[in-house]
Each structure stands twice: as C-alpha cells, then as structure tokens.
Amino acid sequence: DAKTTQPTSMDCAEGRAANLPCNHSTISGNEYVYWYRQIHSQGPQYIIHGLKNNETNEMASLIITEDRKSSTLILPHATLRDTAVYYCIVRVAGSGGSNYKLTFGKGTLLTVNP
Amino acid sequence: KAGVTQTPRYLIKTRGQQVTLSCSPISGHRSVSWYQQTPGQGLQFLFEYFSETQRNKGNFPGRFSGRQFSNSRSEMNVSTLELGDSALYLCARQVSYEQYFGPGTRLTVT
Q1: What is the mean pLDDT of residues A88-105?
Q2: pLDDT tens digit sequence for A49-95
Q3: CA–CA min distance A114, chain B (Å)
Q4: Smallest CA–CA separation between A45 and chain B, in Å?
Q5: Do B106 and A101 touch (CB under 8 A)?
Q6: Would you call B90 and A43 a contact, using CB atoms and an 8 Å cutoff?
Q7: Is residue B56 within 8 Å of residue B48, measured between CB atoms?
C-alpha cells in the first residue's frame, strides 16, 4: 500500500468546516483513498473512500486532486463529537491482494473547539 | 452501523494467564478480522477468518490464536500473557470495500 502523509494535529471551531489534507504522491492507479477516524479508545469508524472522482456522503466529502497525489477530507459543519484521530489510507479495493488488512499511520488529531 | 459486538469491553489479567475475547458480526457476515492497537505500534493485523477458515495471518507469535464458528462469531485467544500484550483488541467485519470495527476490548496485563 502507498504511504500517506498527514499533519499531526489540527484545530477547528465548532460549526466551521474542517479540511483535513493527505498527501499520497506514490499512489498507484488501482489504489483507492480511504478515510477512517477513531474517537478516543473506540474502534475505528469508516468515513468515506474514492478513486478519482470527488465523493460525498452523510458524514463528509472527499476531494481528490486530478493527479491523485493528494486529497482533502471535508467535514462541512464540525461538532465537538468530531474530535478524533483521522486516518488517510491508500489501498487496493476489492477482495483480492492485501485488502484483508488495514494499516494505519499516525493520522491527524482533529480537535474541534467550542 | 458497525454491526460488530465485542465482549468483554474491558479486561484485566495477570502476566502468564490466558485470555479469550469474543467478536460477533451481525448475521450473514462471514469475514472477520482481528487487530491489535497500541500507542507505540499503532494498528496491527492479527488474522482474518472467512467461513470458519483462517484466510490470512499477521506476524504475531503462536501465543495468539483464533477461530470462527458456523454462526460467524469469532474468538481470539492469547496464552501466557505478557505485559506487552496490553492493548485495544479490535474486530472488524468486511463489507464490500470497507471494514466496520467493533468497539474493541481493552486488555490490561499486570
């Protein structure tokens, strides 16, 4: 799986948009960008994933640059409950290859302030 | 939405003892993966079961073992506990391209 680089920490005011960047300059053509988050001492939570088009779901939006070397996770209206460590991962999707396991890096600690 | 139940949530054991952790995915989900998470090592893959068969295994010593039952429930066993086994043990079910995690079992070895 390609390596990712994320800032160690970020702050965001409650109610504002949180924009979390991720660099993945060595991403391969068949690798997807995934985002998970983990609230302190809980299990990781899947947020969103995408290949090359921007994606949106009820939790967040994922913006992937045209060259696919970086992406941004957007939480449109951050709340205090969004305070968590956010992990950006690039990996091959589907049931083949090494898709059976996830590997998390250090992630970004997002702190949403009142 | 995770659809994974793990028991117990917290556990304290003494070095040298053995422990069994349980994971139950919601009905119909046959793939279960186990992970160990520690502050120093991060998230590390232990093993994956599919339809009662261990399909993949991570780089952990033989003290770590698991199994899966016909109802998809899975157990993980750690024998001869060491202090370094203190961690959050996570179970996940695979759905299409995503993995959904349970709340984890926090194991403390004293």
Answers
A1: 70
A2: 999 989 999 999 999 999 999 999 999 999 999 999 999 988 876 55
A3: 26
A4: 7
A5: no
A6: yes
A7: yes
Residue type, A69: K
Please state, as a whole number, how many other Cβ atoms lie within 10 Å of the Cβ of residue B73.
Answer: 14
- Per-residue pLDDT tens digits for B66-103: 999 999 999 999 999 999 999 999 999 987 778 899 99
- One-letter identity of residue B39: P
What is the distance between the alpha carbons of residues B18 and A15, in angstroms, rounded to a whole number? 47
Omega before B8 within 30 of 0, i.e. cis: yes
A·B CB contacts under 8 A: 55
Note whether A46 contacts B: Cβ–Cβ < 8 A.
yes
Residue contact B97–A106, C-beta within 8 A: no
Secondary element (H or E) of residue A49: strand A45-50
Helices and strands in chain A: count of H runs, count of E runs: 0, 9
Q: Is B100's CB within 8 Å of A32's CB?
A: no
